[in-house]
């Protein structure tokens, strides 16, 4: 279901629409699901719900939980304090106690400095009763999250199980600041995300107590609802990503360049084998740079030069994918002529594209980090990267028997004292089907 445009669909095992509901703007996900079920689903029971939730706004962040921020990295990471680069109004609205304590790891996972547990405990006591959530991020925590985990355990013991403690190592991003920023935003939004997901979960289980709930991420893949409250920012861009995937699937394709035509612009994006190419940029939320990767999408304003600029944008989007068709949807799709010498498909029910993209979404795991090559050399590093990506995809809900992998992208790190390379790889596959009783 698409809670942004208030659309919901039921798909059969071949991803064909068997029921749909077009709601009103502002309808909650739970209300959309209830209306869909009340209207008849075309199926005996719904065994899985995949939802696009409204993405977080500046107001959501400002009115969210006050957050305690703990960085693990002294004395190495003290030059730029936590939240120093944030808009002043935002940090003032959500920051509780902020501290940097001793600890962290080297680039290869070795301990950089012992974790200062006494300082962590002091921070936890300052946070008790003063915050609704805590974010913890450690230097090189992606390579070795042990200090983050130990600090989170101390904080949880002091604050109790109802206070979310979000770790920066949960975000696959190389930079400490990007991981820290994402953890702080996720912490601020965690309680609101929990309430929204719980409401939908209650409505779903009233229909089928055994049904599974997933949330769409910003690349159009999913994460389990149990993880949703701890990754509230992950839904940023989900509606647009699901629309690109869904438009291709409405056209019966696994790969396509999609054009969404609206009254004032066109959005162009390509889905290839179930994945959106990345732009290389990180998303900003409320003016804060996060560790979330942004897909490669282009917006073309409808002005005097619209047609020529759109054709140029289509050519760039299809570069390397010259054989794939163009799918055109949107409330102004009829005013766009077919691009020359390109197969074009205009599927019916284009307004349901995002809902279809959600209902048919797959699960993925991506790895983007530096691997330090030991005695096993490059082969061991590549094997580890692929294994980590596959494990992440399975944790997200993918069926391990039918995973697909992207080619491993490799960039040698020539400026470090030991052999190393930055490796990037994604594993993706359909969701594991629920076990029949």
How is this fold's topology laid out?
Elements: E1 7-11, E2 17-22, H1 29-38, E3 48-51, H2 58-62, E4 67-74, H3 88-94, E5 95-102, H4 117-127, E6 133-138, H5 146-159, E7 165-167, H6 176-207, E8 212-216, E9 222-224, H7 238-250, E10 256-261, E11 265-271, E12 278-285, E13 288-295, E14 297-301, H8 306-317, E15 326-329, E16 344-345, H9 353-359, E17 363-372, H10 377-395, E18 404-405, E19 409-412, E20 420-429
Parallel strand pairs: 3-8, 4-5, 4-6, 6-7, 10-15, 15-16
Antiparallel strand pairs: 1-2, 8-9, 10-11, 11-14, 12-13, 17-20, 18-20, 19-20
Helix pairs in contact: 1-6, 4-5, 7-9
Organism: Amycolatopsis endophytica
Protein name: Hydantoinase/oxoprolinase N-terminal domain-containing protein
GO molecular function, one term: 5-oxoprolinase (ATP-hydrolyzing) activity
Describe the structure.
GO terms for molecular function: 5-oxoprolinase (ATP-hydrolyzing) activity. The protein is an alpha/beta fold. The protein has helices at residues 29-38, 58-62, 88-94, 117-127, 146-159, 176-207, 238-250, 306-317, 353-359, 377-395, and strands at 7-11, 17-22, 48-51, 67-74, 95-102, 133-138, 165-167, 212-216, 222-224, 256-261, 265-271, 278-285, 288-295, 297-301, 326-329, 344-345, 363-372, 404-405, 409-412, 420-429. α1 (29-38) packs parallel to α6, α4 (117-127) packs parallel to α5 and α7 packs across α9 (353-359). The protein is globular, with a radius of gyration of 23 Å. The model has no long low-confidence stretch (mean pLDDT 93).
């Amino acid at each position: 279901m698409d809670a942004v445009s208030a659309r919901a669909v039921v798909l059969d095992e071949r991803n064909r629409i068997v029921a749909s509901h077009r709601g009103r703007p502002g309808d909650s996900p739970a209300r959309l699901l209830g209306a869909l079920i009340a209207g008849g689903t075309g199926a005996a029971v719904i065994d899985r719900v995949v939802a696009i939730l409204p993405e977080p706004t500046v107001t959501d962040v400002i009115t969210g939980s006050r957050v305690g921020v703990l960085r693990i990295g002294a004395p190495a990471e003290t030059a730029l304090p936590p939240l120093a680069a944030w808009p002043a109004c935002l940090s003032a609205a959500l920051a509780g106690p902020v501290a940097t304590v001793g600890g962290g790891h080297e680039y290869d996972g070795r301990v950089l400095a012992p974790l200062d547990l006494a300082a962590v405990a002091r921070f936890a006591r300052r946070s008790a009763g003063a915050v609704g959530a805590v974010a913890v991020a450690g230097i090189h925590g992606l390579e070795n999250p042990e200090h983050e985990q130990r600090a989170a355990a101390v904080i949880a013991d002091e604050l109790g199980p109802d206070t979310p403690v979000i770790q920066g190592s949960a975000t696959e991003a190389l930079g400490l600041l990007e991981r820290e920023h994402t953890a702080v935003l996720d912490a601020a939004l965690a309680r609101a995300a929990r309430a929204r997901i719980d409401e939908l979960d209650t409505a779903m289980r009233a229909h089928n107590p055994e049904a599974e709930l997933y949330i769409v991420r910003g690349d159009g893949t999913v994460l389990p609802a149990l993880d949703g409250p701890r990754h509230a920012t992950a839904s940023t861009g989900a509606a647009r990503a699901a629309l690109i995937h869904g438009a291709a699937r409405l056209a019966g394709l696994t790969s396509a360049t999609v054009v969404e035509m609206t009254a004032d612009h066109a959005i162009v994006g390509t889905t290839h084998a179930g994945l959106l190419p990345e732009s290389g940029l990180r998303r900003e939320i409320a003016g804060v740079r996060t560790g979330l990767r942004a897909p490669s999408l282009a917006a073309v304003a409808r002005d005097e030069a619209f047609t020529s600029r759109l054709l140029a944008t289509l050519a760039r989007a299809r570069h390397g994918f010259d054989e794939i068709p163009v799918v055109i949807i949107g409330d102004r799709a009829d005013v766009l002529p077919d691009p020359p010498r390109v197969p074009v498909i205009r599927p019916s029910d284009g307004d349901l594209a995002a809902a279809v993209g959600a209902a048919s979404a797959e699960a993925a795991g991506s790895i983007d980090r530096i691997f330090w090559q030991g005695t096993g050399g490059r082969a061991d590093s590549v094997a580890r990267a692929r294994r980590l990506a596959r494990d992440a995809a399975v944790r997200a809900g993918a069926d391990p028997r039918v995973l697909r992998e992207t080619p491993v992208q490799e960039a040698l790190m020539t400026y470090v004292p030991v052999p190393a390379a930055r490796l990037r790889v994604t594993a993706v596959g359909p969701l594991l089907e629920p076990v029949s009783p």
